[in-house]
Write a structure and sequence with these properties.
Elements (H helix, E strand, L loop, with lengths): L6 E2 L4 E2 L4 E2 L4 E2 L4 E2 L4 E2 L4 E2 L4 E2 L4 E2 L4 E2 L4 E2 L3 E3 L4 E2 L4 E2 L18 E3 L4 E2 L4 E2 L4 E2 L4 E2 L4 E2 L7 E4 L4 E5 L8 E5 L4 E5 L6 E5 L2 E4 L1 H4 L1
Parallel strand pairs: 1-4, 2-5, 3-6, 4-7, 5-8, 6-9, 7-10, 8-11, 9-12, 10-13, 12-15, 13-16, 14-17, 15-18, 16-19, 17-20, 19-21
Antiparallel strand pairs: 21-22, 23-24, 24-25, 25-26
Length: about 200
């Protein structure tokens, strides 16, 4: 028998056929189902379910009472706050089950989803985006955007290091930048959205 390279609390279950990476810790009363994939060095909190066809990347932190349903993709370095909710069916009916015809959701690298937020399926949450606690996400979220409310709306932009950035507009060139006061990273707005200015951050 191959020795486990991850930790599972005695109250939790990892089904045969699930894949769990090295260094991951799975805490109390959680269930990792057959066909689920979890990367390395993740933390899986209490009462978490990861279903078949769900993908969780490396260094992901999943807090208590979260269900990661099939067709939800979680990239590396994502934080899922306690009791946040994913969905995978836009119009569920108990009498007319979809039998696996789920709608995918993508959570890009570095994203944070706050406690009790709800993410409607079919959405993509951008790189290093930030969803405020209790928000209801019904649309795609741009990279680095902070969203809050029901329905969630953009209220600012956040640096990779986790601090809200200050907007600077240059009237002569009509150029706009976002600057992090904590780490001094500089971001610029392009046609693709907010991006790090690699030349100024070098």
């Amino acid at each position: 028998m191959t020795e486990k390279t991850y930790f599972v609390h005695e109250s939790s279950y990892v089904d045969e056929g699930a894949i769990v990476g090295k260094g991951t810790k799975i805490w109390h009363f959680s269930h990792i189902m057959r066909g689920a994939i979890i990367g390395e060095n993740c933390t899986i909190g209490q009462s978490v379910t990861v279903e078949n066809k769900a993908f969780v990347g490396n260094r992901v932190k999943i807090q208590n009472n979260v269900s990661v349903y099939g067709m939800v993709t979680i990239e590396d370095d994502v934080f899922l706050g306690p009791s946040m909710v994913f969905t995978n069916d836009l119009n569920p009916r108990a009498l007319y089950p979809k039998h696996g015809e789920w709608v995918p959701t993508f959570v890009k690298r570095g994203c944070t989803i706050g406690a009790n937020a709800t993410i409607l399926c079919g959405t993509t949450l951008g790189y290093w985006s930030f969803v405020g606690a209790g928000s209801v996400v019904t649309m795609n979220i741009p990279d680095y955007a902070i969203v809050a409310g029901n329905p969630a709306r953009i209220v600012g932009y956040m640096c990779e290091c986790g601090y809200k950035m200050r907007k600077i507009k240059y009237p002569i060139t009509e150029r706009t930048e976002y600057v992090c006061h904590k780490c001094n990273r500089i971001y610029e707005i392009s046609e693709e959205g907010v991006r790090k200015n690699e030349s100024k951050n070098a």
